[in-house]
Amino acid sequence: MDINSMMSMDLAQLQQTVQMSVLQNSMNMQATAAVQLLEAMPEPAQAAHPYKGATIDVQV
Question: Where on the tree of life does the source sit, at the highest rank (predicted)?
Fold first, then answer.
């Protein structure tokens, strides 16, 4: 095996490693951004129950 083919294979492996690293960093940044968006969302207002506590049913 000559030096050119060995260097070519090493370069291809290095490129793949760098691509995976960039992809991993991108996914981590997107996940962090999604968590920040979810944490920044306002709490939904609690809807009042339509009749609970407003009427009293007294049957004998």
Answer: Bacteria
Output phi, psi for 15, to 5 deg: -60, -40
* 22: its two tokens: 């960039």
The whole-number pLDDT of residue 8 equals 93
φ/ψ of 13, rounded to 5, equals -65, -40
C-alpha 38/C-alpha 15 separation (Å) is 35
pTM of the complete model beyond 0.70: no
Q: Percent of the chain beyond pLDDT 90? A: 58
Which residues are within 8 A (CB) of 12 and not within 5 positions of it... i.e. 6 or more apart? none
- Asked whether the predicted pLDDT for residue 38 surpasses 70, the reply is yes
Contacts from 41-47 at CB under 8 Å and sequence distance 24+? none
